[in-house]
Write a structure and sequence with these properties.
Number of helices: 2
Distance between the termini: 51 Å
Number of strands: 2
Oligomer: single chain
Shape: elongated
């Protein structure tokens, strides 16, 4: 039975030993990384993230970008 694909590998694609090692190292770095603690945004939009929906509304005026 072949080794299972490491996280981040393309399904069904044959990986070289170097690629397996690189994926394993990347997974270790992600596991060891601490999440950034950011201060809350001040003066930003309320509601859903506007860049996700492609428009921005401020004071009743909507603009697309």
């Amino acid at each position: 039975m072949p080794d299972p694909d490491p996280p981040g590998a393309a399904p069904g694609k044959a990986l070289t030993p170097e690629a397996r090692r690189a994926l394993a190292e990347a997974a270790e770095r992600r596991a060891a990384a601490t999440p950034a603690i950011l201060p809350p945004e001040q003066g930003g939009p309320t509601g859903p993230e506007p860049t996700r929906y492609g428009d921005w509304e401020k004071n009743g005026i909507a603009s697309d970008f």
